[in-house]
Design brief:
Low-confidence stretches: none
Number of helices: 22
Number of strands: 18
Strand order of the largest sheet: 2-1-3-4-6-5
CATH superfamily of the largest domain: Thiamin diphosphate (ThDP)-binding fold, Pyr/PP domains
Largest sheet: 6 strands, parallel
Bound molecules: thiamine diphosphate
Structural class: alpha/beta
Shape: globular
CATH architecture of the largest domain: 3-Layer(aba) Sandwich
CATH topology of the largest domain: Rossmann fold
CATH class of the largest domain: Alpha Beta
Mean pLDDT: 97
Distance between the termini: 70 Å
Helix content: 25-40%
């Protein structure tokens, strides 16, 4: 067999059943091997969407997502998706074709140094120089992508390696052993928990990535510590629990931010003190000691000093942390009171559609297995605030990179990962246009992805900041020249409708969910609506703005 066939064989050995990609000159041998190679390949309409499709697939399934592209522009188009996967710790393997080894360094047609370009946005990158190494490199790449703190890995395969003949050999199974638990650190963490009067459990995306939701929920139940999550941690904890205070940070709940600010101990699990979480760092939870649990020890002290950092598998360490219900009744009552005092309000005057209420109604119309992908902006924050998630695998949001254009390809990837579950996109009119060509991919794959497009004819989140912090100078954020979105969907054979008034919302959601095809629900909303609350730049998280005044 040749190198390209060897790649397909090794991918199958890794359990790969779905690839997202786009062909071109330097990867033609691999596409030839895929022709009857027995692995599904979805032709996307842009390599960025192929990478983000793989991200969506990985996020929804917990498996490694796989994407591929040709050299040069195909490879550079993948880069945004890899950076997205890097910042959100998503396991992805990307395979790029490269010009033949002999041509590397000659400015050959469609030659770019994708390995060099990828180094800062992948966990690891390989250039395969010898066909003999292909199998081992691919096996290792999958292990690197999914082990420890997951992330993207790039394998660049020159064309001559793809066509070279090879005698396949069994790949050496590559597994990494977990670290031994640091018993002294554990004992210190237990003592800190026992002493704390106002502890908060601060949960990030790392818990879901480690499949440690059950252990985390058991710990939260046992200890009775009030809890908050990051954007990526949404779904990890029981959303209906009386001690769950919601998301913290810039657009977090008031209850979450106030409780965190008053806490004397932050137990941080699989989170990284992102600046969207902390706001003004030196004013963030100033009286709190920190216990930090993470699979990536580089996070300890990176942004906020930890009193104890434990680098361990979360599934192992969480059950060993505390056996008892902490004696913090007064604090629990205080947190419950904060939660009761700062409930969301959905009473909104007028006939126009109020996006937070609409998203709450959408959430109520879906069951707990539905996967919601979103784009970036106001609608993304409204999804995080007003939709209910019981698993982090159901909330696909580009948290770290904030990649506009993420939503549609991610929703496609999610639907392929879990065809039995509803895949719903919530997008904004700006973001939707960033990967709108993927309507063609939807059509090709005939996937019943449901799309809710919240159209405020603005780059809403930027408009909001211009209104609040740039004296209302709306520089390049007005999109009154948007296309007719329903007609555009129709051009791809996708039915849809536009709604503009509150009373149309629930029947339209029902029609969308009843459709057995893809569907576009185009929702006109006011351009003046803002996301509240908001921690303005440069202040502490307890200084949240709740309105323009
Ligand atoms: C690729 C990319 N370019 C620019 C931005 C900056 N940005 C963040 S939110 C936003 C506006 C998004 O507008 P839209 O998709 O309509 O959503 P809305 O905020 O109106 O809900 C922009 C331009 C980004 N996050 N990603």
């Amino acid at each position: 067999m040749n190198g390209a066939q060897y790649i397909v064989q090794t991918l199958k050995q890794q359990g790969v059943t779905q690839i997202f990609g786009y062909p071109g000159g330097a990867i033609m041998p691999l596409y030839d091997a895929l022709y009857d190679g027995g692995v599904e390949h979805l032709l996307c309409r842009h390599e960025q969407a192929a990478a983000l499709g793989a991200v969506g697939y990985a996020r929804a399934s917990g498996q490694v997502g796989v994407c591929m592209a040709t050299s040069g522009p195909g490879a550079t188009n993948l880069i945004t998706g890899l950076a997205d996967a890097m910042l959100d710790s998503i396991p992805v393997v990307a395979i790029t074709g490269q010009v033949p080894m002999a041509a590397i360094g000659t400015d050959a047609f469609q030659e770019v140094d994708v390995l060099g370009m990828s180094l800062s946005c992948t966990k690891h990158s390989y250039l395969v120089e010898n066909v003999e190494n292909l199998g081992d490199i691919i096996a290792e790449a999958f292990e690197v992508a999914r082990s420890g703190r997951p992330g993207p890995v790039l394998i660049d395969v020159p064309k001559n390696v793809q066509v070279a003949l090879v005698e396949p050999r069994a790949t050496v199974p590559c597994t990494t052993a977990p670290n031994a638990l640091d018993e002294a650190a554990l004992a210190k963490a237990r003592a800190m928990l026992a002493e704390a009067r106002q502890p908060i459990l601060y949960v990030g995306g790392g818990v879901g990535m480690a499949n440690a939701e059950a252990e985390l929920r058991a710990f939260a139940e046992r200890s009775g510590i009030p809890a908050v999550t990051t954007l990526k941690g949404i779904g990890t904890l029981n959303p209906d629990h009386e001690l769950f205070l919601g998301m913290l940070g810039m657009h977090g709940t008031k209850a979450a931010n106030l409780a965190v600010q008053q806490s004397d101990l932050l137990m941080v699990v699989g989170a990284r003190f992102d600046d969207r979480v902390t706001g003004k760092l030196d004013a963030f939870a100033v009286n709190a000691k920190v216990i930090h649990l993470d699979k990536d020890a580089a996070e300890f002290g990176k942004v906020r000093q930890a009193h104890v950092g434990i680098d361990a598998e979360l599934q192992q360490v969480l059950p060993r942390l505390t056996g008892e219900h902490l004696a913090i009744d007064a604090w629990r009552d205080q947190c419950k009171a904060l939660k009761a005092e700062h409930q969301w309000r959905y009473d909104h005057p007028g006939e126009a559609i109020y996006a937070p209420l609409m998203l709450k109604q959408l959430s109520e119309a879906l069951d707990d297995t539905a996967m919601i992908s979103c784009d970036v902006g106001q609608h993304q924050m409204w999804v995080a605030q007003h939709m209910r998630f019981t698993s982090p695998r159901n909330h696909l949001s580009s948290a770290g990179l904030g990649t506009m254009g993420f939503g549609l390809p991610a929703a496609i990837g999610a639907k392929l990962a879990r065809p039995e579950h509803e895949s719903v996109l919530v997008s904004g009119d700006g973001s939707f246009m960033m990967n709108v060509q993927e309507l063609g991919t939807l059509k090709r794959a005939q996937l019943p992805v449901k799309m809710v497009l919240l159209d405020n004819q603005r780059l809403g989140m930027v408009r909001q900041w211009q209104e609040l912090f740039f004296d209302g100078r709306f520089s390049e954020t007005i999109l009154t020249d948007n296309p007719d979105f329903v007609a555009m969907a129709a051009a791809f054979g996708i039915p849809g409708e536009t709604i503009t008034r509150k009373e149309q919302v629930q029947p339209a959601i029902a029609r969308m969910l009843q459709a057995d095809t893809a569907y576009l629900l185009h929702v006109r909303i006011s351009e003046e609506e803002n996301v509240w609350p908001l921690v303005p730049p440069g202040v502490a998280n307890d200084q949240m703005m709740e309105s323009k005044a």
